[in-house]
User: Which sequence fits this backbone?
């Protein structure tokens, strides 16, 4: 059986996509981008399986790999920190160059080995798939490979138990009740009241904007601990401080104008009044 | 088209995956590269199945998928546990047994 022109075109177009996806998996700095590139490669491989008569495997590839396995990967990436980019610092000097060299050498060996084989034409799966691909696979799984199939079941159960054992954490002490927490706060004498809310004295009431103290400095206490740890606190304190200082300076100028210019206070006062009104309008708009 | 083209692609993907395992330091990406290598093997198995005209290659690819699924579950559980204790997913930080 020879391959059709359509299959050749499909191979060259999708083959390039698959290789680009694989290179992206290795080269992307962020784990999420790597995962998306790998998902693309896996979908291309699923198309190749379908094109080669492995209908069951093609569908399973999409359902199991791009569906379940990649979802699991993305889940762990979210858990481990989506912003955590890989550091590009080499820990062993020359290791990266050596790895690339090894990869190229290995690839040349592998491809040269395949080039030595005399492969000219596919036998084709028309006969093997005659009774249906799934039926053919089922016959093999439950006759020739039934022992391997049973072992696979044991493997899956072991893997499930192993994952549960690895990720499960036993709670060794009783969680503190609300009463105990409040008593501990009083005993420490620090933050006896609940923590101040964010944004109350700032311009925004978003949770990542710290509340401002009377002198205009932001209060770190008002922002959630997690946001603080991630460094996602949005600081508007500086801007607010600048505005307060500007306002004070303007009022000082106004007071000076009133005290020294008794002769012609009208114009100055009017101008200042306008200014003040404009300030209020600006504040309201903001 | 020469049937070996699929095998060349498979070899290329396997090589890229292997190089990725050596190059990258993030445990999750190293793991993805291992998945890429397993997938490249599956492509070779499916191609051989078509070359020889029987379904045994597809059965082996099917078992590879099952083993890969089990491997992903345990491996990611290890990464999550490691991240909890070290707050890092880098393979360089797993150096507790280093002299």
Assistant:
């Amino acid at each position: 059986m020879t391959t059709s022109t359509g299959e050749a075109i499909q191979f060259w177009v999708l083959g390039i996509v698959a290789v680009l996806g694989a290179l992206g998996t290795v080269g992307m700095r962020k784990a999420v981008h790597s995962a998306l590139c790998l998902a693309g490669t896996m979908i291309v491989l699923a198309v190749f399986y379908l094109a080669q008569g492995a209908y069951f495997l093609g569908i399973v590839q999409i359902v199991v790999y791009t569906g379940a396995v990649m979802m699991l990967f993305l889940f762990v990436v979210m858990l481990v920190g989506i912003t955590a980019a890989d550091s590009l610092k080499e820990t062993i000097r020359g290791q990266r160059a050596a790895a690339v060299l090894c990869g190229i050498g290995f690839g040349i060996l592998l491809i040269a080995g395949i080039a030595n084989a005399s492969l000219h034409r596919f036998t084709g799966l028309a006969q093997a798939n005659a009774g249906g691909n799934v039926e053919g696979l089922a016959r093999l799984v439950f006759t020739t490979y039934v022992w391997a199939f049973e072992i696979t079941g044991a493997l899956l159960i072991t893997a499930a138990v192993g994952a549960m054992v690895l990720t499960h954490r036993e709670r060794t002490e009783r969680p503190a009740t609300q009463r105990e927490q409040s008593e501990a706060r009083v005993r420490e004498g620090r933050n006896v009241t609940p923590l101040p809310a964010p944004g109350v004295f700032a311009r925004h009431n978003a949770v990542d904007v710290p509340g401002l103290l009377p002198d205009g400095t932001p209060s770190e206490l008002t922002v959630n601990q997690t946001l603080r740890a991630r460094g996602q606190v949005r600081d508007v304190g500086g801007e607010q401080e600048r505005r307060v200082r500007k306002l004070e300076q303007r009022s000082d100028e106004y007071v000076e104008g009133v005290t020294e210019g008794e002769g012609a206070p009208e114009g100055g006062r009017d101008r200042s009044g306008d200014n003040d009104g404009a300030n209020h309008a600006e504040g309201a708009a903001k | 088209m020469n049937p070996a083209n699929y095998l060349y692609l498979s070899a290329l993907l396997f090589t890229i995956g292997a190089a990725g395992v050596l190059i990258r330091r993030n445990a999750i990406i190293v793991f993805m590269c291992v998945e890429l290598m397993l997938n490249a093997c599956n492509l070779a198995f499916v191609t051989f199945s078509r070359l020889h005209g029987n379904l045994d290659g597809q059965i082996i690819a099917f078992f590879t998928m099952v083993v890969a699924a089990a491997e992903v579950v345990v491996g990611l559980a290890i990464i999550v546990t490691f991240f909890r204790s070290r707050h890092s997913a880098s393979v360089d930080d797993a150096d507790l047994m280093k002299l």
